Structures are given as structure tokens and as C-alpha cells.
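Fig. S4 source data, part A: sequence.
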Amino acid sequence: PLHGALRVSIEDFNGRWNSISLVLDKWFALQAMSKRVETIQRVIELTSHSDFVLSNPNRVRALVGAFTQNQVRFHQMDGAGYTLLTDFVLKIDGQNPQLAARLTAALNDYRQFDKPRQALMRSQLERISRHDGLSKDVAEIVERALSF
């Protein structure tokens, strides 16, 4: 969790600009791209924020999509970033399969990473593949990634 002046500054910014969608999307993305140790927890907290709406594809891309670009926290050694992504993919697949597929693609290049990260990423792809009712869009992405 954020503390002190940083939390006040971030919340103050949100209070001033939350009526402008594009600025608010940037607000979410900026926090998802943070290199801070608590970034994953912050992303999880932000999913409960009153301005985060799971049915808004731009907002999901701003938070979750930006997080997948965070080379430090998305790829941290404990695999929590991959688990967070998979949780989101499975949560939105029924509502927006195209967005879920686009997010899943962040795991496609798992072979480019060291063996421990490869195993963690692959296990999340396999977790997605086992999900009942998986959309065709996501299934194609996962099948392609696992077949190479």
C-alpha cells in the first residue's frame, strides 16, 4: 500500500482529474507501471477503485495492459504478476473475449525468459487452457503459445 505524501498526491490527482477519462486511464497506467515493490498489491487495490469498471475496455487496458508492460513487476520471480494477469483474463473472458485474448498474449513469448519464469508463465497458460467455457479467442492464443 502507498503511504504518506505519495498516497495523498496520487489521490489528489485523481480527485482533480477523474472526470476526464483519458487522464484517468493514464492515472491507472502510471501506477501499474511503477517499479515499487508493492505495485502488484496496488494494482489489485485499484480494481476495487470506484473509477475502475471491468466492463470498460480502455480502463482494463490502462491498468492490466500497462501492468503487463512493467518489466520489473510483471516478471518478478515469484510469478505473482502472471497470476494477476491470468485472474483478469479469466474474469473478463466471458464479457470481452477480444480484450482477454489481447491480454493473454503478454504470456506468448515465455520462451524468451529464464527457465524459472518460463515455467511460471507456462503454468498460467495451462491454467487458462483448463478453464471451462474459455472463449475461442483466448483458446487460440493459448493453444498457439503452448504448441511451439
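Fig. S4 source data, part B ends here. The chain has a mean pLDDT of 91.
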